[in-house]
Design brief:
This protein is of the alpha/beta class and 246 residues long. The chain folds into two domains: 13-105, Elongation Factor Tu (Ef-tu), domain 3 (Beta Barrel); 119-245, Nucleotide-binding domain of ferredoxin-NADP reductase (FNR) module (Rossmann fold, 3-Layer(aba) Sandwich). Helix content is 20%, strand content 33%. It has helices at 86-91, 128-141, 162-171, 198-204, 220-232, and strands at residues 13-24, 27-33, 45-51, 57-63, 72-78, 98-105, 119-124, 147-153, 175-181, 213-219, 240-245. The strands form two sheets. A six-stranded antiparallel β-sheet has the order 4-3-6-1-2-5. Strands 9-8-7-10-11 form a five-stranded parallel β-sheet, with helices on both faces. Keywords: 2Fe-2S, Iron, Iron-sulfur, Metal-binding.
Amino acid sequence: MARTAVSGRLTWRVAELAETADLTASARRLVFDVPGWPGHLPGQHVDLRLTAEDGYSVQRSYSISSAPDGDRIELAVQRVADGEVSPYLCDVLAAGDQIELRGPVGGWFVWRPADQAPVTLVAGGSGIAPLMAMIRARAAEGSRVPFRLVYSVRTPDDVYFADELRRRAREDAGLDVKLVYTRRTPEGSPEPPGRLGVATINTYAWPAEFTPNCFVCGPTGFVETVSDVLVALGHDPRRIRTERFG
């Protein structure tokens, strides 16, 4: 499954699965030990490669959801029922197993703790993964940069990192979290389910006059819609950074 790789940011390395746990009914948290990992910036991703005994190989890219932490990284993997890679990662790969990995990759969709501008994060579904790395890195750095997260999911059962987000929002006055449910809301919620729209972004994201950095991640249609809304609300397009999948 894996072959030894020489050191290098875009060279394949052998990573060993250290921990795994459910994030939702259809997603898993995978923590890898990557000897010689060069470190990463919040928002970067890695490439994973699976190679069968007959030599057939397939690659997929996954955002890193952890703050920089030595030789260890965390990924959040959504299971795609008919996929080639995600069912193996979610249902077969076990602690102690090895896989090929390279990275970190990307330099545009990243948050740097030295940047003091307010931050608006907008996620759709599994698009929370790289934004979670930013939230965690902010906490690890002891940064006081104010963050606002607007996170759109289908139902309460689909929230990644649900307990951690609740705890961080409760304990950190500099982090605001707004969950938007498109299909089903929590019991007793005063708001009906609905898609993320102008009113929600206008209310819960930083206003354009604050010149925030905006990071938007999710399915292509979601990212395009949110980006258009931010521009319509007066945000500088140069400060809107996007990452899309699907």
